[in-house]
Amino acid sequence: MTRLAASIAGLALFAASAAQAIDLPSMNLPNLVGVGIGATPECSGCKDDMIGVVPGVRYVTESGRLFEWYGPYAQYNFGGLTGFQWGPAVNLKLGRSNVSDDVISKLHDIDNTVEFGGFIGYEYDNLHGIPYRFRVNANVLTNAGQVYDGARFNLGATLWVPLSERFFVGSGLGATWASASYVNTYYGVTDADATASGLAPFQAGGGNQQVFGWIGVIGQISGHWWGGAGAFMQRLMGDAADSSFVRERGDRDQLTYGAGLGYVW
């Protein structure tokens, strides 16, 4: 099980390349530093991709507290490395500007913003028979009205299973609910936007903003070096999917994929 946990550290780089908070297990997991590269939509709802390079860090303090930083998301766990977990969370929420699509580029720009909040979860590591790790996690994030009002709530679950001592496969599912202000900020089309772009005006409401799923593989390359790769699919729901810019110029299905390399110790 220790080797299983060590190998999962490599997926931190997939999480970074996906620019998403993909939960990782904690039991006997060594420290990690690395980098990931991947492709992701230029904005939420856009269909054109951009390439990004992002860091991945995992560190267990001398007191046994776990700090994780994968791409734009970081959290600090005051709970156990297994069992119940909780603590503060922070996320860099990317906005929208200078996109490739000629029509979407005429919509108002959205600034990047820092979100903060907290998370709670539970992790179970099976030590008998075929080892596996199951984790559920939820977080609430807001930006205190800097770009949007209200908050968003994320709920997800992940499962990892070894295929050999050096190769592992994992997957996860989840969903996001968001305030009306959040959904309208990122998917609404104002009257001024409609005049500039030719898209129909759209006033978005809150609710289920997306569902998502991912699959990843990780393996030991040599010694302390581990690699990972995977794909992350988000499907916009509700008013986010019904937005005129998503329906006419974007895509409700948002695919992110990438690979990473990390050093564990």
UniProtKB/TrEMBL annotation:
Signal peptide range in chain numbering: 1-21
Keyword entries, A-Z: Cell outer membrane, Membrane, Signal
Which InterPro entries does the annotation name?
Answer: MipA
Q: Where in the cell is it found?
A: Cell outer membrane
Which family, according to the similarity comment? Belongs to the MipA/OmpV family.
Q: What is the recorded name of this protein?
A: MipA/OmpV family protein
Species name:
Jeongeupia naejangsanensis
Give the taxonomic lineage as stored in the record: Bacteria, Pseudomonadati, Pseudomonadota, Betaproteobacteria, Neisseriales
